[in-house]
Specification:
It is built from one helix and five strands. Strands 1-2-3-4-5 form a five-stranded antiparallel beta sheet, covered by helices on one side. β4 and β5 form a beta hairpin. It is globular, with a radius of gyration of 13 Å. The termini are close together.
Length: 89
Amino acid sequence: MKEIIWTKRYSGTNEPDDLGRWARVGYLEHKSKDWMKRTEIAWIKKVKDKLCAYVYLGSGKFSNIFDTEEQAKEYCEQVINDFYNDYLA
């Protein structure tokens, strides 16, 4: 199972920033301390009262809509781990 590291983008709370932006970005776990070597693989953003989760694998993009941040993160992690186990392990 690959670990996904989630970071906050634009706003550190559950509310958007002053420009209306809110996102959580997922990176694959990486042993390097150099943050530039991290691979951005998932993105969760707010659209009105829902959360849209996007997972980028190869040339494909998986997306879905959720009610909570936890549901969106679980979806992203499941898609990534299924892909890893099916094609890379």
